[in-house]
Amino acid sequence: MKVVLAQLNYHIGNFESNSGKIISTIEKAKKEGAGLVVFSELAVCGYPSYDFLERKEFIEKCNESIDNIAKSCVGITAIVGAPEINPEPLGKNLYNAAYVLSNGSIQQIVRKTLLPNYDVFDEYRYFQPNNQFELVEINGKKVALTICEDIWEDQPVANAFARDKLYTISPMDELIKQGPDFAINIAASPFSYTQVDVRQNIVRNKAKKYQIPFIYVNQVGANTELIFDGNSMAVNSKGEIIQSTQAFDEDVVSIEMDTIDQTAGTEPEKKETIGLIHDALVCGIRDYFAKMGFTKATLGLSGGIDSAVTVALAEKALGKENIRVLLLPSQYSSQHSIKDAVDLANNLDIEYNIVPIKEIFDTYNFIMGPLFEGKEEDVTEENMQARIRGTLLMALSNKFGHILLNTSNKSEAAVGYGTLYGDMNGGLSVLGDVYKTDVFKLARYINRDREIIPENTIIKPPSAELRPDQKDSDSLPDYDVLDAILFKYIEKHESPADIINDGFDEATVKKAVRLVNMNEYKRFQTAPTLRVSGKAFGMGRRMPLVAKY
Is 532:283 a contact under the CB 8 Å cutoff? Predict the structure, then answer.
């Protein structure tokens, strides 16, 4: 039997587009003589649909789409993910289900057992867990069909408690008792820079453990914060990868199941971590704009590394003709920074305008002078400059319909090194899950073939340039130290005492942790952040704003 792995990019709630893609792929698979075509988890409605799943008309649209897709399944079988209404009077309204479609109708429905309820996942909010296990028969083959988390039962709890396992049941252990010929897992597993290898190892280890071939089909594309890398695969019973798809792009591949165990496996070429992060961010920008119906972006190009990396990523995602930036120098901006920004704009061949803000800032100081009489200049005047820039960028955004990209990195977001309603403005935070030390690596990666970001932008000491001779290091520890502390505190859930015991300076750790905790209110008001790590700010990290801990 020839099986097609259909790795597609779905648009949440766009039933016409999603169904059209699925049906088109089914028709092509039929022409190529395939017996089965496999699509990803909740493909019909898109993942994650959040509280759309609580709307009756939304679920009705899902059902209509499934019925329509089933009509095209004559002479072929398709597995398609969609919600199913719970037929029982007790429990949640829905199941997260895989529909087996053949002979023009629904032949069988398999329900998801393990419902993730951690980090960015909230499936217990909507779905009832499955408790019945039955194989699916397709073209005379017995198939163990599971959905995403159903093969992740032996993963440890991802927090400081470090429990051995998150779940108490293994769907595959139950299904293997019935003697399947091979297994299929349909998924919507989002990207993080550690996830690709972990996910691949899980699928390969499952194939080796149960000694059957494994088909894994993942979603691709970005839905706001969540980026899906795809990386679907077919694995033989020895755990060798026989077929795989491209990352961060739609891809449809096929595998002959009758000969999969006679085919030698190959090791897919592994991309370096910073390259994966680069590709994920480009995908995130591209899909955010495409799915929101926007085409053009703007940002403030300062000559610093954060705005430089952001604009280079945006140009890659949207094209140079869709980028327009403002250079907004103040009296504290160095001529070298202005030159670096101009050189970068020219290197990318993007439109730019220089709008000095000194005059506006002087007017603000004149107007506020009587109110501030007797007060020394402080962070107030620095924030005024940032807010002037934010206002001008939003004016350009409003007038021309450009989405403003936020350029703050994760290190800054963590410790509150940014101005609300100023440099924290924006419709999408591109680097908000990228630590400053990795921003430098991204710049080097962007320059891997030619100099796009000026070398001076990369090597000069980071500075907000809001007061004379200002450096980030005046207020913050060196970024290599700060980022290491932040990683332990945010990603690893380590306590300040644990971090100090790891050899970090006590005063530095306490300052960093205090800044993280006291700036939750700022992060609560920031733009959606493209998630590339295992613990991003936003929906995957929920902290109280009013707390003392």
Answer: no
Please count the residues of the chain: 549
**Other Cβ atoms within 10 Å of 80 Cβ, number:** 29
- Residues 338-380 pLDDT 10s: 999 999 999 999 999 999 999 999 999 999 999 999 999 999 9
Other Cβ atoms within 10 Å of 517 Cβ, number: 14
Which residue, 204, 196, 118, 109, is CA-closest to 161? 118
Cα 515–311–190 angle (5° rounding)? 65
Radius of gyration of the chain (CA): 26
Element (H, E) at 197: helix 195-210
Phi, psi of 235 (to 5 degrees): -125, 135
Could you give the CA distance from residue 271 to residue 278 in angstroms, rounded to a whole number? Answer: 11
Query: Poorest-confidence range of 36-40, 221-225, 260-264?
Result: 260-264
Closest CA to 385 of 303, 464, 457, 308: 464
Q: Is the pLDDT of residue 446 over 70?
A: yes
Q: Are 486 and 513 in contact (CB under 8 A)?
A: no
Q: What is the DSSP letter of 20?
A: H
User: How much is the average pLDDT of 92-112?
Assistant: 98
Catalytic (active-site) positions: 41, 112, 148
Q: Which residue has the tokens 């007797």?
A: 374
User: What region does 451 belong to: left with phi over 0, alpha with psi -120 to 50, or beta?
Assistant: beta
Beta bridge pairs of residue 102: 105
- H/E stretch holding 392 reads helix 379-400
pLDDT of residue 470: 77
User: What are the distances in angstroms from CA 23 to CA 44, 67, 74, 549?
Assistant: 11, 11, 12, 53
The percentage of residues in the chain with a pLDDT greater than 90, rounded to a whole number, is: 90
